[in-house]
């Protein structure tokens, strides 16, 4: 049966399929080659490949028997550490399948456990260390107690670089018969913030209703401001029609629910692609930064964004050629 979610369908099954993380892969390959390893701690932001790498390691260690030798648990499960203890005890007391010298327990969200629960987990790791290895997955290593950290080899997972995310998204889009445009990749990366799982999910949502995925389709699916709206508003303001630009702004704010900070970020994203002189771009970028700061300090959104439009109108009058200059052309 086909996978429901693309991030599962296209999840790497081997080290060679994993994008980036070369240093991590090299160290884990060493463990596989030696046939032994310590407890491991994978930490980093969501969607950076921690779960994927843990499952890939299981496949590399156990081959066809990886499911029988691997137990996945959520360490912050509301049922508590006692349930985890019982499940680990039941799992660990049976011998590994195949030639593996130990079994593998993958604990997700280990950093969401209380300090007392982590102390109990540390004891579990000690009791079953002879024939079980633990891989702890966490977003924040600072939330893991020192006794656990000292018992683990630590691996940091970083957000996916834009070029590698783009490469992966294009591969998925091609496999699914979807046309993925460059402007869509830009906004997907901006919205996902390097979270590969979130990026793939967003692509799947957009592709469900669009065979051509562009920035406007992504913005609509993500319930954020469309690039075409930004361009329209910018052209109105820079062209001198500040009143009409303000009407468009109010429509975006009060009818479509666009927040001021989201508007500024979307504007900055589009500014990079606008066909303007570098000096003009720099001036607008400085203006956006100034307004962004005011918004974070609690200033009124409509007043600040109206100010932005008026400044763009003044900038447009300054850079537009006068009637006399136009006649000379």
From TrEMBL:
Residues 36-161 form the AAA+ ATPase domain. One of its GO terms (cellular component) is DNA replication factor C complex. GO terms for molecular function: ATP binding; ATP hydrolysis activity; DNA binding; DNA clamp loader activity. Pfam families: AAA, RCF1-5-like_lid, Rep_fac_C. InterPro entries: AAA+_ATPase, ATPase_AAA_core, DNA_pol3_clamp-load_cplx_C, DNA_Rep/Repair_Clamp_Loader, P-loop_NTPase, Rep_factor-C_ssu_arc, Rep_factorC_C, RFC_lid. The keyword Ribosomal protein does not apply. Keywords: ATP-binding, DNA replication, Nucleotide-binding. The keyword Nucleotide-binding applies. ATP binds at residues 44-51. It comes from the Archaea. Heteromultimer composed of small subunits (RfcS) and large subunits (RfcL). Belongs to the activator 1 small subunits family. RfcS subfamily. Part of the RFC clamp loader complex which loads the PCNA sliding clamp onto DNA. This is Replication factor C small subunit. It comes from Pyrobaculum ferrireducens.
């Amino acid at each position: 049966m086909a996978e429901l979610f693309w991030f599962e369908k296209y999840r790497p099954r081997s080290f060679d399929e994993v994008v980036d993380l070369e240093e991590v892969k090299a160290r884990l390959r060493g463990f596989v080659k030696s046939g032994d390893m310590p407890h491991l701690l994978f930490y980093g932001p969501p969607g950076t490949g921690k779960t994927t790498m843990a499952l890939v390691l299981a496949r590399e260690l156990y081959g066809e028997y990886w499911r029988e030798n691997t137990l996945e648990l959520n360490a912050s499960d509301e049922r508590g550490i006692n349930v985890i203890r019982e499940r680990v005890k039941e799992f660990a007391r049976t011998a590994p399948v195949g030639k593996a010298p130990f079994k593998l327990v993958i604990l997700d969200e280990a950093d969401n456990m209380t300090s007392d629960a982590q102390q109990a987990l540390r004891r579990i790791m000690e009791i079953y260390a002879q024939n079980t290895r633990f891989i702890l997955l966490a977003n924040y290593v600072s939330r893991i107690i020192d006794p656990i950290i000292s018992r683990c080899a630590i691996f940091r997972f970083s957000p996916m670089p834009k070029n590698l995310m783009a490469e992966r998204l294009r591969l998925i889009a091609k496999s699914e018969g979807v046309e993925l445009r460059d402007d869509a990749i830009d906004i997907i990366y901006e919205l996902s913030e390097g979270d590969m799982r979130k990026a793939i999910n967003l692509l799947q949502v957009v592709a469900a209703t669009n065979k051509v995925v562009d920035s406007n389709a992504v913005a609509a699916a993500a319930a954020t401001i469309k690039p075409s709206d930004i361009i329209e508003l910018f052209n109105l303001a820079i062209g001198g029609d500040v009143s009409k630009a303000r009407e468009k702004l109010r429509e975006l704010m009060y009818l479509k629910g666009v927040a001021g900070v989201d508007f500024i970020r979307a504007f900055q994203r589009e500014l990079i692609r606008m066909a303007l002189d570098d000096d003009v771009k720099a001036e607008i970028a400085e203006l956006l930064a100034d307004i962004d700061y005011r918004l974070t300090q609690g200033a009124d959104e409509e007043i600040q964004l109206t100010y932005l439009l008026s400044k763009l109108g003044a900038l447009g009058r300054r850079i537009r050629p006068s009637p006399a200059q136009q006649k000379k052309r």
